[in-house]
Write a structure and sequence with these properties.
binds S-adenosylmethionine; Methyltransferase; SAM_dep_MeTrfase_SAV2177_type; Rossmann fold
Length: 284
């Protein structure tokens, strides 16, 4: 299926096009977040993940909170255009809603390769001016960058915030995640930013309890083997290089609750249970 932008006359896919034979990461994540846009096959798989990693819901919520803080920070610094790849099933507040609390004129293009996200995009993401949705794959940067909806909404002469939040762990090493980021980076002008988060199997460095986690890690990866995209957990040392030309802003790559927290910082145990690293980088 090629890139697709729902217009006013076509806001979604027919139910028949939604594959309910295999778990979909977008729908499993929706289940972790307490959403309703998931199917039995997704709930069964998600429950298996919860069995081996009971804190996955905490991780999902912390990841969403990181996205909100990063978007607020960048929009507060003047960014007015966002490309959010691996959007996920809409969950309030969505990226454009967060951005528009600060700057109502912010333009946002959402991109996801799962038709279920397209199904909900018309009603919950693109029902307002200056937002668009593209059914596209992060593994095809050119198709995304050249898509008419992207070209219409994004001015590539002005800084852009590229969001790759909780998506690159669905890209295998042989699909070259760093090369994909570099391809997007090349199209963006100086002053653009990358917001990235990524799941890990690594214990939190300051947690001394140690994690008996090789089992959990293998268990979680195992569940995703039956899903439409495999999970590729990476250590911090494998995530930092993904930033390529984007210089890391303070505090660098950290467990997501530690990225410029706006409230109390979780305990070391909770940080250990939060399996996402995140950071923001700037292209000079
Ligand atoms: C875990 S959700 C993250 C949603 C949101 N970015 C967040 O962090 O809250 C991952 C999303 O990435 C999407 N995704 C997975 N592989 C993708 C690919 N190759 N291209 C585009 N989107 C992809 C999934 O469909 C899903 O919606």
């Amino acid at each position: 299926m090629g890139p697709y932008a729902p217009g006013p006359e076509h806001t979604g896919f027919a139910a028949a096009e939604i594959d309910t034979s295999r778990p979909h990461p977008a729908r499993m994540y929706d289940y972790y977040l307490g959403g309703w846009d998931n199917y039995e096959v997704d709930r069964v798989a998600a429950e298996r993940v919860i069995e081996v990693h009971p804190q996955v819901r905490l991780s999902a919520r912390a990841n969403r909170a990181f996205l909100r803080r990063a978007v607020r920070t960048l929009v507060g610094d003047g960014v007015r255009q966002i490309i959010d790849i691996g959007t996920g099933i809409p969950t309030s507040p969505n990226t454009h809603e967060v951005a528009r609390e600060t700057a109502p004129d912010t333009r946002v293009v959402y991109v996801d390769n799962d038709p279920i996200v397209a199904t909900h995009a018309g009603a919950r993401l693109t029902n307002t001016a200056h937002t668009g949705f593209v059914l596209g794959d992060v593994r095809e940067p050119r198709a995304i960058l050249d898509h008419p909806t992207v070209r219409e909404l994004i001015d590539f002469d002005r800084p852009v915030a590229l969001l790759l939040v909780a998506v690159l762990h669905f890209i295998r090493d042989d699909e070259d995640p760093a090369g994909l980021v570099a391809a997007f980076a090349e199209a963006l002008p100086a002053g653009s930013h990358l917001v990235l988060s990524h799941a890990t199997g690594e214990p939190y460095e300051a947690y001394e309890g140690g994690r008996t986690d090789e089992v959990a890690r293998a268990g979680v990866e195992d569940v995703y083997k039956s899903a439409t995209a495999t999970l590729n957990l990476r250590p911090k040392a494998g995530i930092e290089p993904l930033f390529g030309p984007f210089a890391l802003l303070e505090p660098g790559v950290v467990r997501v609750p530690l990225w410029r927290p706006d409230g109390a910082v979780p305990s070391a145990v909770e940080l250990n249970d939060t399996i996402f690293y995140g950071a923001v980088g700037r292209k000079g």
